[in-house]
Fold this protein.
Amino acid sequence: MTVTWEELGWERLAAGVGRCRLPVWDCTAGLVVGDGTALIVDAGSSLAEGVRLRTQAQWLAGHRVTHLALTHPHFDHVFGAAAFAGAEVYGPVGMETVLDGRHAREELRADAVGNGLDPAAAEEAVDALIRPHHHVSGEWTLDLGGGRQVLLANVGPAHTAHDLVVLVPGEREVVFCGDLVEQSGEPQAGPDAVPSHWPAALDRLLELGGEDALYVPGHGAVVDSVFVRRQRDELASRFGVSQ
């Protein structure tokens, strides 16, 4: 069965690179297709959502999902991860401390239910939570074959104590930002945020992507470097961080 990105509700950003905006929380999931490989960026808010992502990604790539990158440990980005059985899972170093342990998992479950996720779906996702196999400290170049490489960069702490971005080189760079950047609302700073470091994380993001990149926020429409820099300055002002 041959389907197009658009038919499945995905936005194609470059050859073999796209993203979809998931319902309810408008959370982004990304896809990068390599030679016999496929990388998903973030896994959705439930096991059912993860299964839908995996199925659609396999239709678009023509083969199974082989890699999964988790940008940060919030429920709407990680609860679908267990649906990607057999994939190599990458996350920022330290994320495993949030996904391990009874207390940490209970906090994730409570946050999901508090934000409207069905309690049974939240319980199922927490029971199946998986931790990354590969912990990214600094930068990690991932070879997807066919001349396609992506850069995983740990730029946090900022939105959380553990923030990863995914840079896809090309004629125009594509940067999956996680919730370091949000377009559909003001960036959320919960109890696990490190506001004093957030502007510096966005400086690093801009340094990696450059002026002409497409920046894919964790929530909302794709933006440019001007938007990211403006949001960086707004966060610096909001949190009293020196410009």
